[in-house]
Amino acid sequence: MLKVLIVEDSCSLADTLKIILEKENYYVDVVYNGKKGYEYAASGMYDIVLLDLMLPELNGYQILKKLRIKNIDIPVIIISAKSELDDKVDAFQFGADDYLIKPFEIKELIMRIEAVARRGNSTNTITLECGNLKFDHNTCEMINKENDKSVKISGKELQLFEYFI
User: Could you say which architecture CATH assigns to the domain 3-118?
Assistant: First the structure.
């Protein structure tokens, strides 16, 4: 199951995309500002990020720049109303993998997600273990190895687990 992070300050658009992508069998988290967007994207939990450029706290360009400076190679598709060539050039220079102008067709977004995922840089092999706990990246579950019970965790919970390890 592909894990998608949506970083979009329009709650209605972000929530609609979440519902649609979940119906397509994606695991989806949504954040509404740039600061949380960067934290979640940097967690290593996601296969792809859908990133708006005009965000509060940190804009999309700043997020991209910070991710790439830290050598975080998560695929990023820009979803933005900014349609000027310079905006696209800047996004690609900062490390975007694709750029989609709003408004867009959902089918096109899904095709672009699948295309970026096929490139092979979206496979995340992070394995986190501590004591009897193991994080399964494929299912986003924390598993108790002694009794095989599991619980799904969010990006912030994963960050806390990494920190405590």
Answer: 3-Layer(aba) Sandwich (3.40)
